[in-house]
Amino acid sequence: MDIQLSDGYSFEIFRQMPYHKPVIFTTALHEYTLDAFQYFVIDYLVTPVTLSALKAALDKLRAIQYPEVRTHHDLFTGYDTFIHESYKERFLIQIGQKFVFVKAGEIELFKSEGKVVFLTDKKGNKFSIDYMLEKLETLLDPRLFFRLNGKVIISINSTTQVRPFTNKRLQLHLQNNVTSPALVVSRQRVADFHTWAEQ
User: Fold this and answer.
1) Is the pTM value of this prediction over 0.85?
2) DSSP state of 2
3) Is there a single domain that holds both residue 71 and residue 95?
């Protein structure tokens, strides 16, 4: 955590909400070293942070919290696996009196229509779900899903073509273009879309 934030100092966060887990502070300021050690601080890294200093800090964290991890590389690998496994992998959909699973890999898009959000799969089936788009953004793997605008989240695997569109926007054509017509990336999201599509 950085010490000096745009709206104050991070110490205020700890004063308002007690937190008793390891913290690594990074800052360009030397004068807050003693203040930092009031908390469960692992290290106090002064920017620019060197690779060796970061490695040493992570090794301290490993020794305290993850004694079974052998190297800082393993720590990152374990964290990466945990993050990826925490994304939603399937949705339980009710169809009449029965329920079916729709896996994340089978989803083409999510679309908000009025106050209802619909899931469309790659076969063109459309189901209403009890999630808002804002919540879905936190549940879905951002490597695979992207919010185009205020109404649509798409899957990377369903996109076949991207074309320039009016007002510096982009138009996407999906595999199932019969039930899912072309979609537009809002102008504010075009740069983020390029980054997402190329990762």
Assistant:
1) no
2) B
3) no
